[in-house]
Structures are given as C-alpha cells and as structure tokens.
Design goal:
The complex is a heterodimer of chains A (about 290) and B (about 130). By secondary structure, chain A is mainly alpha-helical. Chain A is built from ten helices and no strands. The two termini of chain A are about 25 Å apart. Chain B is about 20% helix and about 45% strand. Chain B starts with a helix and ends with a strand. Classes of the chains: A mainly alpha (about 290), B alpha+beta (about 130).
C-alpha cells in the first residue's frame, strides 16, 4: 500500500467529517428556525442523526487511518497497538477521543429522540449544544492553528461553526421549499436570509484574511498546488455567495408564487453541490497539499 | 429591534476584525526535513554508525525505514516515543557499499502526518 493512499483516504474522511459536522450544526439551527413547522421536525431530526453518525464514523476512521499511515504496513497497520498506545496519549489522540465521544453521545441522543417521538426539551437542547462545543473546538486542535493562541483557536472554531451552520442548513431548506409553500415559505426563507447575512460576514472575513496572508507571498498563490487549490476554493465560494444573494433578493420576495418556489429548490440543490465542492476542496488543500 | 440590530452590527464588526488579525498571523506548519547525516543525496566513503534527521520544527518521528538499492527493508532498532524533537538519531547496522533510501514519517504538534524519503550512497574508498 503506497503512502499516498493514506493521504487520499485522510482527505475523503475529512470531507465526510466536515459534512457530518455541517449536518449536525445546520440541522440543529434549522430545527430552531423552523420549529413552527411540525411536518419538518422529524425530517430534521433524521438529518441530524445521519450527520452525527457520519461524524462518529469519520472521526473514528480518521484516527485509525492516521495509525495506518504511521505504521505503513498495509491495512492491518490500522490496528497496530503500539501506535495506538503512543497516539492515544498525545494531545492529538485526546482531541480524537473527545471528538469521537461527543459524536457518539450526540448520535445516541438523536437515536433516542427518533424512537421516542417526544419533543426536545430546553435541558436536552442545552446538552446537545454543550456536546457541539468540543466537536467544533476539536478542529482547532487538529490543524494549522494548533500552535497559535487560544484566541486564534476560538476564531477558527467560530469559522467552522459559521460554515457548518450555513452549508448544513441547505438540505433542510431544500426540504422546506418542497414541503411548505406560499407565505410560510417566504417568511422562513426571509428569516434565514437575515441570519445568513451575518454568517456570510464572518465567512468573508476569514476568506479575505487568508487571501491577505497568501498575498504576502504571491508566488505561493500562483505557483504551488496549495495556491491553485485555494484559487479553486475561492471560485466555488464566490459562486455560492452569488447564488445565495440571488436566492435572497430575487427568489425569496417572490416565493408566494409556486413557480418561484420550484426554481428556488433547484437553486438550493445547486448551492448544496457547490457547498460539497467547497468542503472537498478545503479538505484537499489541508491534507493532500499544504503550504510549508 | 433597532438596538438589537446595532448590537448585531457591532458584534459582526468585532468578529470580522479579530478574524482578520488572527488569520493573518496563522502559519501553515507542514514541517520538512531540513538536513540529514549522511547528507541528502550525498556519497560517503565511511561507514555511518547512525542516521541523523534534522527537521524544521519539533515533531514526533513515528517511523523510519532504511531501504537498500533493491528497496529491501534493513532492520533498524528504532522505538517510537512521545518525544517531540527537531533532531533524531537512529543507529544503523553495518552497511555494504551501495545506494540507500531513508523513508521517514512524522507527526507535528498539530496532528499532521508528514512523510518523505531521501537517498545516500556508500562508495568504496579504493
């Protein structure tokens, strides 16, 4: 098994991890946003459950892929007890364990809610939110900002939170556009648009600051695989911003007409595919390539 | 409502400004092998007793392999540990003349997997 295989496996699993996190956070946000629509609640709970399952699976798998990449003895190397013992006792190992445990608890909680069909209480909602904190913060403990200040780590966590909230909201919004219609749909989309404007502000700030960092060394942007990947990501991000703006200012005011509701659902589907492309590109440039 | 809107605008401005400051100071930390003994692509006449790997930053050396010209594994007595260091020294057995490849795998403090390889050659002194 060539070492590159581990790197590509890490890339894909990281994309799944981003996706799972987005489903959980975006789903939880939409549960609150669309709480008056009973017909959507069960769909959203299922969505969050799938997200938590995906997060749990990818979090555990990424740990064992890391073990396999270190032992470099094929698939069986993923269970190398020597490396497991070494890695589990490092801060990296702790971050993996805390993240996986949080996803496991979230997954069990959501399974319980799926089977009981009882509404989520405020205390349960608080426990859910508390479990999200270590998941979001873990991204700052397993990446480039690990060696920076706590302040920078908190900012990265906010970035992950905002991105997950937006990308993860797209599927519930797509379902909303299919199930709800008329004024109710218009009001829901209008409310999301108002909150999304705030989220977009944070995301643009993060993107612009990374661009500023790269402009200090313009060659990095133009002549390295990381730079090329970054440009592709920016193109996707600009596309999704344009589409979101179009949704907000063109479709949303016209949603009382069924024709526009249908067109909006197609636009959200396209937005979802762009979101997936952004997640894949981000995980690619942070695993397969990287700036030294 | 207006007060809420103003507070949200202030909050957004604070987040935007602080994010720019923090992200601008971030570094992309994929640590590379800076030098080695025997040196990278070097031809040496004497028999090396050990291999020294010098990295650009502190890492955990998770795996190191020595391969001969036919890329056959030569057993090394390296025990992986929690030590975060810039330089690692690994004893090597007696080697014949020929080309050798050192394959290394490290983990940075940020949990990143890094790997690479380099060659050196032992030439006869005749």
């Amino acid at each position: 098994m060539v070492p590159e295989t581990w790197i590509y496996a890490t890339w894909l699993v990281k994309a799944f991890l981003y996706l799972g996190t987005a489903c959980v956070i975006g789903g939880a946000f939409c549960y609150l946003l669309l709480k008056s629509h009973i017909e959507l609640k069960r769909i959203i709970i299922k969505y969050v459950t799938v997200g938590a399952g995906l997060g749990l699976f990818s979090s555990i798998l990424s740990f064992f892929i890391l073990i396999g990449s270190f032992s470099n003895t094929g698939f069986s190397g993923m269970w190398d007890s020597n490396y497991i013992n070494i890695l589990i006792n490092t801060s990296t190992g702790h971050a993996y364990v805390i993240r996986s445990t949080s996803f496991l608890l979230l997954f069990l909680f959501m399974l319980l809610k799926l089977s009981s069909r009882v509404r989520i209480t405020k205390i349960e909602g608080s426990i859910f939110a508390a479990l999200l904190i270590p998941i979001v913060f873990s991204f700052s403990q397993l990446g480039h900002v690990t060696n920076l200040s706590l302040f920078a780590q908190i900012l990265l966590s906010i970035h992950v939170l905002a991105m997950s909230l937006w990308i993860g909201s797209l599927y519930p919004l797509w379902k909303t556009s299919k199930i709800i219609n008329g004024l109710a749909l218009k009001e829901s989309m209008h409310l999301f648009g108002k909150i999304a404007a705030f989220i977009v502000g944070i995301l643009i700030a993060c993107g612009a600051s990374v661009a500023l960092l790269l402009l200090k060394n313009f060659n990095t942007l133009l002549n390295t695989p990381y730079g090329h990947g970054f440009i592709i990501k920016i193109v996707f991000v600009l596309c999704i911003f344009l589409l979101a703006a179009f949704n907000k200012w063109y479709f949303t005011p016209r949603l009382q007409h069924p024709k526009f509701a249908k067109q909006l659902s197609y636009a959200i589907l396209f937005e979802m595919s762009l979101g997936l492309a952004i997640l894949l590109t981000t995980s690619y440039i942070t695993t397969v390539v990287g700036v030294e | 409502m207006k007060l809420f809107h103003n507070k949200m605008t202030v909050l957004r401005n604070i987040v935007v400004a602080t994010t720019i400051v923090a992200a601008s100071s971030s570094v992309f930390a994929h640590v590379k092998l800076e030098s080695a003994i025997p040196a990278i692509n070097a031809s040496v006449a004497s028999q090396p007793k050990s291999i020294a790997l010098n990295f650009g930053g502190e890492v955990m050396l998770m795996n190191v392999k020595l391969l001969d010209a036919q890329r056959r594994d030569i057993a090394l007595n390296y025990q992986v540990s929690h030590d975060l260091k810039k330089t690692f020294e690994v004893a090597v057995p007696k080697l014949k003349n020929g080309k050798y490849t050192v394959v290394w795998t490290t983990m940075g403090t940020d949990g990143h997997h890094m790997s690479g390889e380099y060659n050196f050659t032992i030439k006869s002194t005749k």
